[in-house]
Amino acid sequence: MHNHISFRYSSMVFSILLLAGCSSTPDNAKTTEYRFLDSTRSFITLNDSRRNGAVVDKGYFYPKSAFSFSYRYCAKSPSHANQDIVEYQALAKRVCDANNGQLIHQESGTWCVSNANTVAEYPLFSARISSTELWADLCLDGPFVTLKVIENTNAPLGKWYDAAQVLGYQPYTRYRKLILVDTNQGALYLVTKEPASAELWNDESRYIYTNIGQIVCLYNQPEGSGLGYTYRGTVQSVSNGRVKVLATTKLKGDIRTAPALERLEWHREAYINAAANAWFVCG
């Protein structure tokens, strides 16, 4: 049975779709009673600017294909983009609170978890929103806004728990380091990079590792770079969990969410050797 709960932002009221779940293991795992992806879809439909966006970074390999949702739209103005970010961050916190969860900030982003910082900690969802004023020729009135949700849909809790780790969640240990976030700047951590743990592979990593000649890409954001770069090339060889790629193209930003493919000056060709799960299929 579906219920609704209303949240108020400025003068607007909109409904958050509630989905009742059942609880199971591992280790006191808690299901999400209020699903954040449903709330995100409601957020998108509130005005024409958001509705006229597009789903990006579509995952074709598990677990990304099952649990990740990314969306980009052109805001009306910089002030509208800032307001959207404030509202979406507040929405994430409200939904997390409604699930009796707590927001924690890791290198991969902000996660809503139950039983935070205990051995019984369990991920409920991850949320992210950001904006960029680059590609102004494609978004004349305001910056592009990109939001991303990682959340279980209907998979068994144990399967979701394993998938969340592949997608960036770091389980609690006494040695885990969290990111300190100034809550005055918002409830969510603005990620500067997406770390890849060499120990965790997904279906895409395994596909790349076993397909010499496959066209692949790697996203890198050097220190001080606002957007970072995507390198594209073909797999030449693999060894010890690493993939050697002959890179021939350098592109602006992360092409999985970029609104256009903008080539940058680059060597005619160069080899890049990185962990298998640092690469993604792009051709």
* Number of DSSP-assigned strands: 14
Distance between the termini: 42 Å
Helix content: 10-25%
- Whole-number mean pLDDT: 84
Please write the string of helix (H) and strand (E) elements.
EEHHEHEHEEEEHHEEEEEE
Q: Biggest sheet: strands, sense, closure?
A: 6 strands, antiparallel
Number of domains: 2
Strand content: 25-35%
Radius of gyration: 19 Å
Tally of helical segments: 6
What would you call the shape? globular
Uncertain stretches of 5 or more adjacent residues: 1-26
Q: Trace the largest sheet across and list its strands.
A: 3-4-8-7-6-5
Structural class by helix and strand composition: alpha+beta
Describe this structure in words.
Keywords: Signal. Residues 1-29 form the signal peptide. By secondary structure, the protein is an alpha+beta fold. The protein has two domains: 2-185, no CATH class; 203-281, Roll (SH3 type barrels). Helix content is 19%, strand content 34%. It has six helices and 14 strands. It has a six-stranded antiparallel β-sheet. Strands 9, 10, 11, 12, 13 and 14 form a six-stranded antiparallel β-sheet that branches. Strand 9 (215-220) and strand 10 (229-239) form a beta hairpin. Residues 1-26 have low confidence and may be disordered.
